[in-house]
Amino acid sequence: MRPVAPALAEALAPFVGGDLPVRLEAWDGSAAGPVDAPVVALRSPDAVRRLLWHPGELGAAQAYVTGELDVPGDLDQALTHAFAVARERGLPRRRPSLTAVARAVRTAGGIGALGRPPRTPPSQVRAAKDHYNLSNEFYELILDPSMAYSCGYYSSLEMSLEEAQHAKLDLVCTKLGLQPGMRMLDVGCGWGSLSLHAAEHFGVTVTGVTIASEQKAFIDKRIADRGLTDRVEIRVQDYREIPETGFDAVGSLEMGEHVGRRHYATYAGVLHRAVRPGGRVLVQQMSRQGRNGGRHPGGGPFIEAFIAPHMHMRPLGETVAYLEAGGLEVRDVQALREHYVDTVAGWLENFDAHLDRLTALMGEEVVRAWRLYLVGGSMAFRDGRMGVDQILMERPVA
Ligand SMILES: C[S@@+](CC[C@H](N)C(=O)[O-])C[C@H]1O[C@@H](n2cnc3c(N)ncnc32)[C@H](O)[C@@H]1O
């Protein structure tokens, strides 16, 4: 087979707006681009098909997840490099003619017709839709023992992930002013980290709600094992259907991201209605730059397609305005952006330590998607494109 890379480089140049920014290795063994740049390996013509069909993040992510495109070196380093080049060059002013690029690639590579890429396997679509019902074991292998799936609080540099999650839960319970005998509501309780911590360490009675039945099954077992059946109740319930009012405190850790712009006022209203006058509410939520969350409010085309569709993030100020409009008085906002870089590093360490088991459980493609999600997420927090904040509020006494 003729070497394809020089012509591929030429064909791909319009997409990158200049010289090749990476070392490109093609499936025929040829290579092009700077020798000291991160390596991107195109293992199959399907990688080119996907990049042509969905230029940019989505096509590249699809090709990476399927293994048609690989990054043999450090993924973080390669993505950081790609982002830096994209920022420096900006997007190409005009989208290149698909037919022209396809013709050039085809002539060079002899890869036949460049039609539609293969479809995304249904298993991946299901994995994204069922983010929280994926498999409890999958999350157990990645998260800390408390099963907190939200940003930890590294109050000292030497903390482990487990200690940082414990410190975060203590911080939340302290900010909420929990005292023995109080009633607390945990909206979007995940695998029960806050509900169980509040009951065990602060002596409160807790109601937790989640939309994932797998999570309820997991927490119910922990409740029984720890003798907390009379103090913690977990329900599979949408936040809009919580009937009770008069809670002394309400916590909602990283659930607000699932509430779109259309419903956020309702979410704020639910929090306000659930807590008694004078009671406290703490929302921990991720934010992102760009008015109204920009074109991709859910964290970008990759996350929206592969990990968790229907997520919605916005600048912190917009979220605060919604909560205030819902009748809550904001008392304190604490930014924890850097803590997410360390939290994700902890998750990635667990991920790498259990790679074989994770692959056996979920398959190669889900595991590749998750690596991209974790590495890309950590970068977004490190670079300030995303943030996470604890917003402490009080329901005013009328
Ligand atoms: C990122 S997890 C956070 C879990 C937990 N708060 C923690 O810190 O570990 C988001 C949680 O919100 C829940 N959730 C999403 N949409 C919901 C809805 N409409 N009503 C109730 N819970 C919801 C999910 O089931 C999941 O438990």
From TrEMBL:
GO MF term set: methyltransferase activity
Enzyme Commission designation: 2.1.1.-
A Pfam family: CMAS
Alphabetical keyword list: Lipid metabolism, Methyltransferase, S-adenosyl-L-methionine, Transferase
GO BP term, pick one: methylation
CDD domains: AdoMet_MTases
Domain of life: Bacteria
Keyword hit for Chaperone: no
Alphabetical list of PANTHER family matching this protein: CYCLOPROPANE-FATTY-ACYL-PHOSPHOLIPID SYNTHASE
Family the entry assigns: Belongs to the CFA/CMAS family.
Protein name listed in UniProt: Class I SAM-dependent methyltransferase
Species for this entry: Nocardioides hankookensis
Lineage, broadest ranks: Bacteria, Bacillati, Actinomycetota, Actinomycetes, Propionibacteriales
